[in-house]
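Before the break, one more example. Copy the sequence into your notebook; we will annotate it together after we see the structure.
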Amino acid sequence: MSNYLYPATVESNNEGGFIAKFRDVPEAITEAWDLEELKNNARDALISAIDFYIEDRKAFPVGSTVKSGEIAIELPASVVAKVLLLNTMVQANVRPIDLARKMKVKPQEVTRLTEAL
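Here is what the structure looks like once it is written out:
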């Protein structure tokens, strides 16, 4: 699952806290007052960004190599599974309704799998 480690740059917010930004997922930006809280918020920001990719039917990028001075944020396995499903559907140009037909299940069941986190 190392492809689902996302490097984040950490910078000061000029008020005593920190800002984390992801070069692989520019939509994910977060802020916190301490580094531990920042790491938790960064993971949440990544997970929230996936919603945008799902809505836009765009593949979610894999994480690039973590460079010196960056922190690494790992997605939980359950989220990685959803990302893998999303990316496969985008690559194969399969809509949720198409997947439901192929799986011989109700469209609502696929919607639960592919809906926003």
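The mean pLDDT is 91. The two ends are 19 Å apart (CA to CA). Try to locate both features in your own notes.
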